[in-house]
Amino acid sequence: MLFSDSLTLDAPRRTSDGYMAVRAKAARTGVYQYTGREVDPNNEHGLRDQAIVNVLRDEAAVFDERAVRSFIAKPITDDHPREAVNASNWRDHGRGIVMGAVRDGDHLAFDLVLMDAGTISKVEAGKAELSNGYAATLEFGDFAGPAGEKCQARQAAIVGNHVAIVDRGRAGPSCRIGDAAICDALPIALQDGAKEAAAWLKKAIALHEKHMNGSAPTTGKEGEKSQMLMMEQMKNALAELGGGDAKSGEAGMKMDVYPFHILEQEKPVKTMLIDGLTVDVSNADTAMATIKTLIAARDAAGAKVAGLETQVATIATDKATLEGKVKELTDAKPTPAQLRDAAKAYSAVVEKAKAHGVAVTDAMDEAQIMGATVAKHMGDAAKDWTADQIAASFAVLTKDAKPAAPGVQSLGAPIVIGDAEAAFADAQRKAREERRNAWKTPATSAAA
């Protein structure tokens, strides 16, 4: 498995032969972070699906005598070759040689001699960053870093291959870890790209957090505008991370370099806590994967919000419909005056129908009563008439009908029936008086 280290140049000097002699100090020990897929692509150790795996490079590996000696006499190249440097291609790639190596605190410093005039001119013109490539194996287990960090793997058996002079390279331990002997060289503009990408990513994450805690809108026109702003920030970060002269798909050795004029010690790993996950934002692959995850989460949240908005709109429509029906029913409720008028109209229809000899029952409404009245007079001629025709015919037929007056109907002059007992007593009284006064009247029959 191949890794890469970053080196920095001290002030170069010229030899009497015109060669350039320079000391490069490499930051070598510490904890480096990789994705699980980089460390364990076949999931042989159960680490493939982990977002971050800590790999320890301790002093035992860095300052191992065999590892240090492996860099001695190795070639210096102008940019990274697309193949490992060996005897068959040294003439094509060699521009100088590593003369020695010494320990400098936690660093391993190299003494380099550049022998090619063209390469020396490039260094003097500003192409002064270095990247050394080496192969290494991984030991899996539980290890502790200098500050107590938990590490799942340890780097061991380091073997140097070459040191390249480059314009700029990708920061951090970016060489892909694999079983192949060579990894891809993917230099990018560290100073411009990575810093700008980190800045855009921080803005996008900050806005995402506002969306999650409700301090920034997520719905309506303002929410759409805010979501689009976050997407634009993520796209800008991806664009910065994808910049430079990187070419994928070709074999080569992938290296990392730091600007010699700004670094004198190991570049620290830049991490950021995103949704509870510690992410190495200096690692382009990890940063891009994180951005894509955030975009996917944003899209899922947007779809959920759209669904909820549709539900809210449906509920609002149903509410408006229900309120309309309630108003319609309320408006249709008859007033007391309307009820009195309806009762009078119904009573008038009933009386007119009865005046025409129609038997009216309590189960009949006005339309049925009028229909029965018209049918009695018109017969089958009215069987297909409409309600309006029946009502008009009823009005004509009953216009002269006079409903019976309410109350007791007149039965003729009343017959006065006297008291029989009083009459009998009166008759007896008259008879007694006639007998008592009879002697006073002359008997006319005898005189005759």
Automatic annotation (TrEMBL):
Ranges where the record places region Disordered: 428-448
Listed Basic and acidic residues bias regions: 428-437
Superkingdom of this protein's organism: Bacteria
One Pfam family from the record: DUF2213
Protein name: DUF2213 domain-containing protein
